[in-house]
Structures are given as C-alpha cells and as structure tokens.
C-alpha cells in the first residue's frame, strides 16, 4: 500500500469516527430523532450556513464520484461512498473514495 493510500485510509477512518462520536452523543442526550437533529443543525445562522455548506459539498462529491465511476464501472464504490457521505459526512466519504480510487484495477 502506498503512503498516500495509507493517509486516505487513516483520514477516512478518522472522518468516520470523530463525527459519529458527536452524533451518537447528541442522540443519546436528546433521543434518536431525525427531526431533532435537523432542528439542531438549523438552530442559528452559523449552524445553518455550515449545514448548507456540507450538504452542497456532499452533493458535489457524489456527482464527481458518479462521473468517475461510470467509465470505471465500479458501482460498489459509488454505493459505499454514497452511504459514507450521507450517513456520516464528507469527512468520511471523500477520503474513502480517494482510498478506493487509488487502488489498482485488474
């Protein structure tokens, strides 16, 4: 494994663990309510701006991944990265895609 692949993998793991720690702590404190967490994301203008920034970035990432997946025909990579991006966040989806994209295809 190359040095850059290792960096991408480490960042994907960190990008998955760190946000989920905060999401799970919030859910444990306030209950497992999607409406509640969306309300928390829109509690003020700063939070709302960050939410929109990350939402737009997630859609751009998915469009970019899809445009690269079509010629490579790596559909499973698209599905995994889609789930990672919208299930955890861009901080997990982007380095995960870079990790999977940098592997050799036989």
Notes on the structure:
This protein is mainly α and 106 residues long. The protein starts with a helix and ends in a 5-residue tail after the last helix. The mean pLDDT is 94. It is built from five helices and no strands. The chain has helices spanning 3-30, 34-41, 45-72, 75-87, 90-101.
Count of DSSP-assigned helices: 5
Order of helices and strands: HHHHH
Dominant shape: elongated
Indicate the structural class: mainly alpha
DSSP summary, beta strand count: 0
Mean pLDDT: 94
* Strand proportion: under 5%
State the major sheet. Answer: none
Low-pLDDT stretches: none
Indicate the radius of gyration in whole angstroms: 15 Å
Q: How many angstroms separate the termini?
A: 16 Å
Give the SSE layout:
Elements: H1 3-30, H2 34-41, H3 45-72, H4 75-87, H5 90-101
Helix pairs in contact: 1-5, 3-4, 3-5, 4-5
In summary, what is this structure?
The chain is mostly helical and 106 residues long. It has five helices and no strands. The chain has helices at 3-30, 34-41, 45-72, 75-87, 90-101.
């Amino acid at each position: 494994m190359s040095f850059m692949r290792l960096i991408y993998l480490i960042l994907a793991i960190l990008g998955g663990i760190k946000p989920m720690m905060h999401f799970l702590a919030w859910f444990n404190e306030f209950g497992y309510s999607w409406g509640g967490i969306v309300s928390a994301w829109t509690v003020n203008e700063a939070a709302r701006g960050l939410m929109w920034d990350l939402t737009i970035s997630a859609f751009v990432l998915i469009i970019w991944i899809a445009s690269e997946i079509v010629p490579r025909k790596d559909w499973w990579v698209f599905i995994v990265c889609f789930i990672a991006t919208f299930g955890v966040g861009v901080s997990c989806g982007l380095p995960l895609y870079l990790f999977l994209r940098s592997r050799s295809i036989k």
